[in-house]
Amino acid sequence: MSPLDRSLVIGPLALSVGQLLLMLSIVVALIIGGWLGRRRKVNVGDSIFNAVLLGVIGARLVFIVQYGESYDMFWSWLDIRDRGFEPLAGLVVALVYLVWRLWRQPRERRPLGIAVISGALTWSLTAGALALMVSQGASIPSTPLTTLEHDEVTLPTMLSEADRPMVVNLWASWCPPCRREMPVFEQAQQERDDVTFVFVNQGENLSTVNAFLQQESLALDNVYLDRNNALGHAVGAMAMPTTLYYNADGTLIDTHFGELSRATLDRSLERFSP
Fold first, then answer.
1. Which residues touch 205 (CB under 8 Å, ≥6 apart)?
2. What residues are paired with 198 via a beta bridge?
3. CA–CA separation, 21 vs 188, rounded Å?
4. 3-state SS, residue 228
5. What is the value of pTM for the model shown?
């Protein structure tokens, strides 16, 4: 897993490292913009907040345009828990707003410009340094897992036998986002025979898992137990759900931290296309 996609748990809140670094960059921009703005008696905090908000809205709208057919109902477009955003589009929208703001408000140009540059440098330096600390393209872990029939299996063995890409979902029955996204995976597993879907339960026993599958009427293949959360620790996922995408060679090519929708799943599955 990329170091930016590793998850951190802070009390009841679970965030990826990438999200934390983005928040840090925004805070740095606000602090520097506020300090410089006070010296010039202008307030640039609103401009920064507006740029962030418009960027998020733009990133979401472009994603919906691209994958709107994957959403069942209109209201699901507003459910951003699936983290369906197009970052490049959001960045363009934010930059367009900032350029417009700098043109319309000459007094804000220096403090706002320096604040934005400071935030961008904070992101690039911290994210870049972290990325260099961990090699990219991590291989699929060989952590022993247990089938529902009490047999032992490893993901590399499954991958070599199937010779096709693999999607690995880390989940637990007590996790509400995990429960909500299971029907999405069930449908995808039935439709995509070119991809192996694996569901690794974290920390629960066989009876609990079987009861959950029966209660939810889920027909899932490749459900395995990881009683000691060893796989989660191996890939750096400290919270659930986490979904990992491996190509047929066993190389990690994408991750999704948190709940996903059919739209965000479809986007990640595109990475497997020739």
1. 225, 227
2. 168
3. 32
4. coil
5. 0.79
